[in-house]
Amino acid sequence: MFTINLHDVINMQYTSGFPKGIMFIHTNLVNNAANITSYMNFDLCGSYVHTCQKIEQRQRRQRMFTKVLVANRGEIAVRIMRTCKSLGISTIGVYSEADAEAPHVKMADEAYLIGGPRVAESYVNIDKILEVARLSKVEAIHPGYGLLSENAEFARRCEQEGLIFIGPSSEVISRMGSKIESRKTMEEIGVPVVPGITYPLVDAEEAVQVADRIGYPVMLKASAGGGGIGMQIVRSADEIRKAFGGNQKRATDFFGDGAMYVEKYVDNPRHIEIQILADGFGNTVYLWERECSVQRRHQKVVEEAPSSFLDEVTRIKMGEASVKAAKSIGYRNAGTIEFLVDADKNFYFLEMNTRLQVEHPVTEEITGLDLVAEQLRIAAGDSLNIIQSDVKLDGHAIEVRIYAEDPKTFFPSPGTITKLVLPEGPGIRHELAVSDKSIVTPFYDPMIAKLVIKGKDRNEAINRLQFALAHYQVQGIKTNIPLLQEVAAHSAFRSGDTTTNFVEKYLSRINGQ
Amino acid sequence: MSQVLAIMAGSVWKILVQVGDQVDAGQDVVILESMKMEIPIAVDFPGTVKEVKVSEGDFVNEGDVMVEFE
Fold this sequence. Notes:
Number of helices of chain B: 0
Oligomer: heterodimer
Radius of gyration of chain A: 22 Å
Mean pLDDT of chain B: 89
CATH class of chain B: Mainly Beta
CATH superfamily of chain B: RNA polymerase II/Efflux pump adaptor protein, barrel-sandwich hybrid domain
Structural class of chain B: mainly beta
Number of strands of chain A: 26
Shape of chain B: globular
Radius of gyration of chain B: 11 Å
């Protein structure tokens, strides 16, 4: 096994000031002279200014890890390592052959090559990752999002080996990981769910029977599905017959589980989710909502907090329902409950994500919390140091996901980034792990960066978003920045008319299949 | 001679035609997989498949010829 010791030193300089209550952190890498060339790329990417919540120096740190393995790549691995470093925790990285030059490898105190470029060979190779964990003697593993983050088997193996999996128990992951199981659970607790069935369908004909009963359009869904895979809106019996086999096959290919079910499709819904934090002592709080209605291919593109649609009463109702759900399943660590909200503000449970979400920074911006730090503390056995009435809701935050893809067809656009210029200014935070000369490979998710904007209110946040997007330059590959600019400039976005069909409804796109 | 090219770098997930098949304009012939997305590649002309130059699982670069037609 190839091992590299990098001994990065991260200098964190703090300047208080703008915006109110928020500190700027300038991250500068001090290069190891022996590795100066390989560091240059990262320096470009690491020298950005990002606004972040103040790093709490807790006086009574009873228990905290000294070494954590980050079983992920890309921006989220870098983001987790940043908090680890601020808490004085050593970081162990893992990487594939395609990622030898990746920023997360350079940021880690030690990084281990674990296999080939395909995720099955490396980032989801449980045996390899556990071998690195043993070898490097870490106490805990942070799975990030995607990859192994919701893999109950991985969490179980960690538990068996005496390693702390930073997340809920394997039992909770597996219960919430099945769309059918999680629906049943929510129904039992009294959290509203979309009309549909809670048992796997035998075949397309049974799907037709159910759909006839609950009414078209319906959503055909894979129980184990995610990211829009194995999921399709169908509007007639014929369409079900056409769509069933293909989606089931895909679900089997992707998730090893072809269980399908069907539920009522809520027309023109909003996607609104509640962030919760729960410690191991029964304390659970909700950190308000995020609205993630602007999507393409069922994948989120723009996320914001708070939602401009929710009123105070609905916000509290959804928050309390989420806390109740989390408590009743014995949830521990950070988690998110996703809801569909219809035009009359009825909300329906969609799924629970038992991990940190891509869009967690918008919650950090409005609450002033560092969610990764909270996760680490909870996993280390600490109790929450906030109660519900302490949770702030300050200003408005918007995150946009920058994807390496054609902005019109949504086709992926891997390649080499020849130029990268990041906008700077008040309320602008960057989360990314690419730089000039970075190669964006076809092996991983197309999201290359996140742009997080904070303003005193939604209008200011949108203004700042427009400014930032206008000055965001990525050359060499195609990105969805033109699409994001269209969204930000659209009067319907400004007025908060954001439903999940926003892109189809308001933007002239070529149907990307 | 008409060809179907890879519109992006990725791997060949599925090949939907064989040598000798008649295809219509708009018919999918190959499904590429890149960045966790499957992209069906259709022909924009009718024709007969002369040669399939890739196999399922192959890695292709943008512009690589995948299928040739008479």
